[in-house]
Write a structure and sequence with these properties.
The structure is a single chain. With 837 residues, the chain is α/β, with parallel strands linked by helices. It contains 29 helices and 20 strands. A five-stranded parallel beta sheet has the order 5-6-7-4-8, sandwiched between helices. A hairpin with a 2-residue loop joins strand 9 and strand 10.
Length: 837
């Protein structure tokens, strides 16, 4: 091993073999003449272009030593091995160098890949990896040696932990009672399975969060409580928080989603080696802004001994998660209403002096809803004169009573509720006063006191106690423009000189400007120095700001902004390093990619649902990102769809793809999508003559399910294929059309609109040329061979059809190097050919 004199870890003895194969007694599978493998705890091997002197049984002494150490590890469990191979490009300049490099590559290919070696590029990348792995290895050794007691409570949370959760856990579990059947079912599930997911589903106010907090506190579970405020729905921050609880410090050297996900996988694997089961509680899955399965919920593999408890309302979030768990044990437990005994226990604990008849009346009104019970108890505590006979019919009745002064002109209450609805962190009395311009006393008496029993008070301020009250406020009290105004007021507060040093300014100013609709101000304020400072303070959280900034720029429909976007990201990469480019490219792609499917490298984006249609999309990127794009826009009783391919690949192409998708989306909404040919011509007019963009292919569709027809226009994209359930046949639909940005007359290209009947049971498949033409072998491309797959899978859902096509494409003979991105979009008309639903 070549020693790096810049690395120093206290308590670690370094023995360096800088001359492999040159021991006086020959290679011995040890570090020096005295130190034997039985005395070594860890062997670190670092390889690049030279390998060492050959020996009789190996290409070099280094190979002999590492293989010997590996055999010893297999037999005795020690020493641990960490091997690192430099992936920096290298061009040998002589036969000797070629031979040396060939030995290294051959050994790398043959070296066991069971989590024992990692690639790196250059000294910086290696140092970061080695520091992270050594720190983790040392913590693991300390833990297994007894330095950390088995079964002890989780370590004190680091700065990555969301401290507001402490208050939530304490408050939510304070009055928790009952649910014994759920805990019993969980214990039975753990006894019956080696690992798995235990999903708890229940309606609003049914006590999901209280149950989760009870499990967290009583069982010392690793945990996260999702919320749309305070960054508690951000996947990157959640990953860091979970890691901080499992292996403190593990996330210090990682920022990207991919790095953090890998670290979490390793942390779970390490934790699973202990005898006690590892329980992770994720509360409020339905609080996520979309239904994509988050990366902190491993669905393809779960180490033995790891159990994940997830709470959620019924709906897309929990349904999609269950669909992903085909290889992991899973049990769904519905959270039923509280029974009479459980409600009696809660009300008795509160010492409200309620008679048995009062308890029965409250139980009847609440229908076993824990949130309703809490609201009733709070009302009786605040107002002893309150009559049980005046109980409202549901929890919304309590919300209306608390906010009744709004109708009497209590503008401060309106201001406070709007600000708390918009803010992503608890707001203190002083902060609410500064934003509203009202004195502290007026804010408290008029804005906090009337709804205080529905708020959670922490050291940092006030926020909503329960999502149900948040929903009531945003859906029943405010119009969308009034909430936008609240975002604008918070943004002005952060922009003011007094807010320049607030951490929240860098954390959320871009968010509030975007939500307020102030796109021009966002572009002016969130500039490169602002982004660089946010990156310094919050790391890869800057990706959110870039997403908002790119969205604001692209909305201008000016192709020149693409060059600005690329330059912006390149400048930040010089600050960030690592795989920042890959992360930003993923964040600005024209679709939200779900987690990788079980077929390696396949991304399956979540698409909007639409009545009468079943949609599936998949992308196999050439690299880490894709220049192919989709856009799906529901408009009243029709669905507008685009699929396209930007030239080349990489960061520029990703922005070009996003630009085209954005222009299509805006034009659809502006024109109400009356003609797909006119849409493509309008897009062509926008980009015509811009050499920077190059020539692009695109297809635009307008689907009318009521009329059973699809209108299509094509700009040089591969032809769609239509399966007719009535004829039981799939046909290629020749639809000529020039590529975008090819006109030499200075006028946009006119595009013809085609129409096809689309009846129940029909399927339409759209693909990129990566599928039809890429990886040509003996001048025989894959082409449209998938038409027969459509016919043989008629009646299946769109996902099944799409995956079958990709599987067939993969099986087609080809070179190993993929020539282009491969994309597929499958649209199926629900129902059968005879019209049944």
């Amino acid at each position: 091993m070549a020693a790096d004199r810049g690395l120093h870890l206290e308590g670690v003895r370094w023995e360096t073999d800088a001359r492999p194969g040159f021991h006086s007694e020959g290679p011995q599978g040890l570090i020096d003449d005295e130190l034997r493998l039985d005395d070594v705890d860890l062997v670190v091997a670092i390889f690049w272009k030279r390998f060492g002197t050959p020996v009789p049984d190996a290409d070099s002494g280094t190979e002999h030593e590492i293989r010997n150490a590996y055999r010893h590890w297999q037999e005795t469990g020690r020493p641990d091995i960490m091997a690192y191979f430099n992936q920096r490009p290298y061009a040998p300049r002589s036969k000797d160098e070629t031979d040396q490099w060939g030995r290294v590559l051959a050994f790398q290919a043959a070296f066991p890949k069971q989590g024992l070696w990692w690639p790196y590029k250059g000294k910086t990348g290696f140092e970061r990896l080695l520091r992270t792995h050594l720190a983790k290895w040392i913590r693991t050794r300390l833990s297994s040696s007894g330095a950390v007691a088995e079964g002890s409570a989780p370590p004190a949370p680091s700065a990555d932990y969301f401290t507001i959760q402490r208050s939530i856990i304490e408050e939510a579990s304070r009055l928790f009672v009952g649910r014994a059947h759920v805990e019993s079912a969980l214990d039975s599930f753990i006894r019956a399975n080696r690992c798995g997911y235990f999903l708890i589903s229940g309606g609003p106010g049914q006590g999901k969060t209280a149950l989760a907090c009870h499990l967290i506190r009583n069982r010392s579970c690793v945990h996260h409580i999702i919320s749309r405020t305070g960054g508690r729905d951000d996947a990157r921050l959640i990953l860091r928080s979970l890691l901080a609880q499992i292996v403190p410090g593990a996330a210090e050297q990682a920022e990207s989603i991919s790095e953090l996900t890998k670290l979490l996988d390793e942390a779970l694997l390490g934790a699973s080696l202990k005898s006690r089961p590892v329980a992770i509680v994720i509360a409020g899955l339905d609080e996520l802004p979309d239904s994509a399965t988050p990366p902190y919920l491993p669905t393809e593999h779960l180490p033995d001994g790891v159990f994940v408890v997830v709470t959620s309302r019924p709906g897309d979030h929990v349904d999609r998660l269950r669909q992903r768990l085909f290889a992991v044990p899973v049990e769904l437990c519905a959270l039923d209403p509280l029974d009479l005994d459980e409600m009696r226990t809660i009300l008795t604990m509160l010492r409200l002096g309620a008679s048995e008849s009062d308890i029965e009346r409250i139980a009847e009104a609440s229908q076993g809803n824990p949130l309703y019970l809490r609201a009733t108890a709070d009302e009786l505590t605040r107002n002893p004169e309150f009559s049980i006979r005046d109980l409202p019919s549901n929890i919304d009745g309590f919300f209306r009573r608390s906010t009744a002064s709004l109708a009497l002109g209590n503008t401060i209450l309106g201001d406070v509720l709007a600000l708390l609805s918009a803010a992503r962190k608890p707001l203190s009395l002083a902060e609410l006063s500064a934003i509203t311009g009202s004195p502290n006393r007026a804010v408290f008496e008029g804005g906090i006191r009337p709804v205080r029993h529905f708020l959670l008070e922490t050291n940092s301020g006030y926020t909503f106690y329960h999502a149900k009250f948040h929903e009531f406020v945003t859906r029943n009290i405010f119009y969308a423009d009034e909430l936008s105004l609240a975002h604008a007021r918070i943004a002005e507060w952060l922009i003011a000189p007094s807010g320049r040093d607030f951490p929240y300014r860098y954390n959320s100013l871009a968010y509030h400007l975007a939500e307020s609709g102030a796109a021009d101000r966002l572009v002016d304020i969130v500039d490169e120095p602002f982004l660089a400072e946010k990156m310094r303070r919050f790391g890869y959280a800057v990706l959110e700001d870039i997403e908002y900034l790119v969205r604001a720029l692209l909305a201008r429909r000016d192709p020149a902004v693409i060059d600005r976007c690329v330059a912006l990201v390149e400048s930040l990469r010089r600050v960030a390093g690592g795989d920042f480019i890959s992360e930003i490219a993923r964040s600005v792609q024209p679709y939200r990619s779900g987690p990788p499917a079980y077929r390696a490298q396949t991304l399956e984006p979540d698409l909007p649902s639409f009545r009468g249609l079943d949609l599936y999309a998949a992308v196999l990127p050439r690299g880490q990102i894709s220049a192919d794009f989709f856009e799906v826009v529901p408009i009243e009783d029709r669905l507008a769809v685009a699929i396209g391919d930007a030239p080349s690949y990489g960061l520029k192409s990703t922005f070009v793809a996003r630009f085209l998708a954005s222009v299509f989306h805006d034009l659809v909404l502006d024109s109400k999508a009356t003609d797909t040919g006119a849409l493509l011509s309008a897009i062509d007019r926008t980009i015509l003559g811009n050499e920077y963009l190059g020539q692009l292919s695109m297809q635009g569709l307008l689907i009318e399910t009521a009329n059973k027809v699809i209108h299509i226009a094509n700009a040089g994209h591969p032809y769609p294929v239509h399966y007719s359930a009535r004829r039981r046949k799939a046909d290629i639909l020749p639809m000529p059309g020039l590529l975008l940005n090819t006109s030499i007359s200075g006028k946009p290209t006119p595009y013809e609109e085609f129409a096809i009947d689309f009846e129940p049971g029909d399927i339409l498949v759209l693909v990129s040329d990566g599928l039809t033409e890429a990886n040509i072998v003996d001048e025989s491309p894959y082409g449209y061979r998938f038409a027969r797959i459509m016919e043989s899978n008629a009646g299946a859902d769109s996902a099944h059809v799409g995956r079958a096509i990709l599987e067939d494409w993969r099986a087609f003979p080809r070179d190993s190097n993929v020539g282009d991105d491969v994309s597929i979009l499958v649209i199926a008309s629900r129902g059968s050919a005879n019209g049944s639903k």
